[in-house]
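Summary for the steering committee. The consortium agreed at its last meeting that each partner would contribute one worked example illustrating the joint modelling workflow. Our contribution is presented below. We chose a case with several input lines so that the handling of multiple components could be demonstrated. No manual editing was applied between input and output; the record is shown as generated.
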Amino acid sequence: MNETARPGAGREEILSLEGVSLWLSGREILHEVSFSLHSGELTGLIGSNGAGKTTIFKVILGLETPTAGKVLFSGEARPRRNRSIGYVPQSIGLDPDVPLRARDLVALGLDGDRYGIPLPSRGRRQRVDEMLQAVDAQGFADTRVGKLSGGELQRTLIAHALIAEPRLLLLDEPLANLDITSEQEVVGLLASIAKARAIAVLISAHEMNPLLPVMDRVVYVASGRAASGSTEEVVREDVLSALYGHHVDVLHVNGRILVVAGKDEVHHTGPESEHTAVPRGLG
Amino acid sequence: MFSGFMANAWIVATMVAVVAGVVGFFTVLRGSAFVAHAVPQAGFAGAAGASLIGVSTLAGLGTFAVISAVAIGLLARRGRHDAVTALALVFMLGLGALFLSWSEEYASAIYALLFGEVLGVSTNQVLATAVLAVVCIAAVVVLYRPLLSASVIPEVAVARGARVHRMEMCFLVVVALVTTMSVPVVGALLMFSLMVGAPGAARSFADRPWSALGLSVVISVVIVWIAIAASYETDWPVGFFVGVLGAVFFIAGRCWVAWRGSGARGARRPGRLAARPVQLASTAGIGGEQI
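What follows is the complete predicted structure of the assembly.
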């Protein structure tokens, strides 16, 4: 076990979910989900599509109210308007003609919820410049947001979220649709942000391997249930088999982790199932 | 052509152009052009109904415009606007047709409601237009930043606790007010071109929100001024010139984008995201997760 990757004792708890269950139209979407996020830590929220990752985000953001359990923000209930949580959505439908440059989008993160028109001020411009620099976005600061590449838009949205100085940053599938180079850049950037700003970062992903080098904790979600802890504690055959409700194998291949259903126990064989054991990047 | 009754025409048309340029900026940004088309049709029905029962057409226009805008906002609360907007549009047009068939108004009065009658603006109308213009501009100034956030990145605005739907309703009411002041001047069918043509063209030329907004106002005013002058000289309907000029500016904007894009293509090519096929990412993820 890697002791340095374990949650440190001096780190402050930013958010905790305690036994959160959620029923929507007669279906249990989340079942007694509990985990906590700490300052300076990067946590991966790992699970396949439909496992409940997005619902967990909605619960954290206050867009869904848990049927049972508690969501505590620094030990207290969450206020409605919460500038302490930054959110980066998976994709935003941007019109390429939107007359908004990357720097304008970042500036909206600073005061986009205030009424009235923004007065140009040196301090405001300086903060935007600093934030663009922090996410290494100076090169496209004056490009229209609709013309940014996936990785560039991702960084702009991260800056948009960070400039409000949140204590928790949520990113919904930030690695989806990125090429491998951008993927590594974004992962590295997020890890350094968590450390440098001492904020909690929660990244949802359907694949954990790109996050393995930087992830302090993992929250593994399957069928609305979650297990959390260090990678070594969670990504194990006994833990994940209990989570899935049947046996799964956890394979370590060249520093990558593959979670594979037991051969006999594949429940449904969709068109994808034959390929699911192929790790990306090895083919 | 600047004296007497024409003075009112210039004043009112300029106010209409400024407000249409400002509100139109958000109409285009939000993809609400269709709503900006439907609400004036509702206003037309309201005006026809008002003249039928002998009350102020402006009051009828405003009432129906606001009711239809609010109805579109409420009915489209979940999901997309377009079907609800289309329904509001045809319902109101049908109502307008019925009112017309009962009415004994001169055809020219109805024609003016549809295509505008800038040359017959009364002094009372100047005052009413000025009041509505101030209300609309004030609303946009107050809502500017939250409306911009809710329009461009609604997902993030919602996550931050913004009341995006309330913002939507406020905006629709503003559209209805702009409609009320504009329809008597440029007509129900063609005010749409002022609210979409000018801002649509402006965002091709300007990269930043403020300059696009400013340019939208400038183009809108230029369109209206040229249209009035041309209408005065030729005696052709002012709406014809407004519609044509809106399209001309919009096409000029697209040409500018294409010309500039071809010059800078080597330096920066949009859309290089998803260099890796999306399918690969989803099927070859963590092994047996799709158990």
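Residues 1-9, 265-283 of chain A have pLDDT under 50 and may be disordered. Residues 11-84+166-236 of chain A form a domain with the Rossmann fold fold (CATH 3.40.50.300).
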